[in-house]
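Hello,

Our lab assistant flagged a job as stuck in the queue for most of the afternoon. It eventually completed. Since we weren't sure the result was trustworthy after the delay, we are filing this so someone can double-check. Below is the sequence as submitted and the structure that was eventually returned. Let us know if re-running is recommended.
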Amino acid sequence: MTTKEEYEYTPVAGTEESETTFNVTNGEVTIQSNKMSSESAQPTNRKFLYIAACVANLAGFVCGTSFGWTSPEIPKMKISHEAGNPLLFPLTKSEESWIGSLLPVGATLGPFIAGLTADKIGRKNTLLAGIIPFIIAFAIAAYATHPLLFFMMRFLCGLAVGVVFTVLPMYIGEIAEDEVRDSLGSFMQLFIVVGLLFSYSLGPYMSIMAFNIVCIVSPCVFLVIFYLFIPESPYFLIRKNKDQAEQALMKLRSKSQDAVQEELDEIKSSVEETLANKASFADIFKSKGLTKALTISVGLVSLQQLSGINIVLFYAQDIFTDAGSTIPADISTIIIGIVQVFASGTTPIIVEKKGKRYLLILSAIGMAVSQGALAVFFHIKSGGNDVSSIAWLPVTCLVIYIITYCLGFGPLPWAVMGELFPGNIKSVASTVTAAGCWFLGFILTKYFSLVSDMIGKAGSFGIFAACCVGASIFVYKYLPDTSGKSLQEIQDMLSGKSSSSDA
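-- returned structure --
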């Protein structure tokens, strides 16, 4: 007679877990083991992924220092040479407008360089090469004694900004996991505003030479750390060498070789499809989904510029001086910088809970209200009325404007751009979107002073407020909620293959 007894035990925690059964039949013991990887039982370790995103976004920090550079430096170039101006003669109104607007000119050309090199030498190498113009530019500004040298400096900064704004969202979008793509995508704005605060805090209290020498440090730090420790995008590496792509993905996911195979196969399949269907800019208009993606992407970054953000950032001290605020202009600017940092720091948290669409609408409404109030203030002041009782209003309005901008229209248009396009069209679409954004930025910064003289600051901020109202309508009508969706799911939504695409 055969008897069978079965015993089970739970293993002690170790490197692996298993369900093991001892079967005893006629005195013979057989062991069956069902091994389970401990990796599947443990929470995902994203520590290195966040480190990689932070290091990559040091490039955004450098962009921020260049954006904030004009606010403390231009006032120093308006004083006499004897008072510390490195120029022999004070800056003219025309020269001032060129210094402000040549960064967007360079940033209009930068994306075309980035679009060509991102697929040739990789996202990582393009970012490394793109940061070098910053080093040259700050070195020029440290020793410049003629306006033309400052023109050159701002143009070089613009070239670098154009490269970074095109490739950085692409790189972050490709290394991020679906669950954290929104929060990692909003890091760019956080690092930009930290760079702005850096310029606002140090610039007013240092000479032009000393400040620009200090500005050289951050791009040099980025070059060293990003080159030595952060891997290339697996999406780019898979085209060249599967083993290198595997190693990069293992490092980014902090997982073993076996644990990344499924995602690696998905990346390989996606890239193979991309290469087999390589598309040109004209091909965008042959697809309903891609046309919608381009409309949304260009629309969002254009409305970002039309919100007046570059005017506020480039001419912050001048705006506070003109407003006659009781708070010194340089202190007011630092307050704005601190508010930007805290507001941008909350965005990665809120966007995971509320989604990009909700925050963009909230952002547009907040900017419209704050700039509308600022327009009313300047209208009252231009009429010769006493505004001393509401002298606090400009700072309050710009604080609210900055908070709402940083919650939505600061970081999210670029994050959206990084996920709307499939790989076969991403480089060319990102190039066109970024170039269009910065061309519009050039028009606004170059002619803001002229238009402001014609219609006054009240009229200027009134127009910006109206554009923000338009932005809220645009987002509500056209932008689907892409939060938590994979890149393929987003493409299906835009093409109308999913009911969730309905905005």
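-- support follow-up --
The delay was a queue issue, not a problem with the job. The result is valid. Residues 1-22, 33-42, 499-503 have pLDDT under 50 and may be disordered. DSSP finds 21 helices and three strands in the chain.
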